Amino acid sequence: MNVNLDQYRDAPHDPETLAARREALIDQLGWLADEAKALEPMLADLPAWALDRAPLPDDRTAKETLAHLALLDRDVYPKWMEQLVAGEHPTLAEAGNETDSEANNRDLGDLLAGVREGRAALIETVRDVPESEWTRKAMLADEEVDLFDLALRIVRHDADCLRDLAYRLHEAELTNRP
Description:
Strand content: under 5%
Distance between the termini: 63 Å
Shape: elongated
Structural class: mainly alpha
Number of strands: 3
Order of helices and strands: HHHHEHEEH
Largest sheet: 3 strands, mixed
Number of helices: 6
Helix content: 55-70%
Strand order of the largest sheet: 1-2-3
């Protein structure tokens, strides 16, 4: 049996497929809030140094990582949605590496709550974008994107940040062994 793989080169754009992709991406956006809730008891058991110190000067601490994720949800991603819907092929500002300079002095529970609250608000913002606007085009980092692309980028960024944090904490000596 011959299969024409060229038919899968571009994602289908029929209304049913787009609606399913939209719902799947919104569901995936919720994953960060779920992870923040699941991480809370594990992170709460770690020594303070594991949360508020970075292994290298250019690395974020665990607390800074959480603050960074909340900052993007609060200050960067909603602006992308606004610009995409309001503008005719706007150029979106790339997400920077900013973070809350006071993150290491903040309570872990507050930081995790900030991640959950920021993501819940972002999901509502994304959900409020009419389906017809999801295919509008914008430029981001010299690449043409639509809301499907932006949502996928956000989900991938979340996964990358949490994976890096998990690897770093796994590699650290966090046991109470003598």
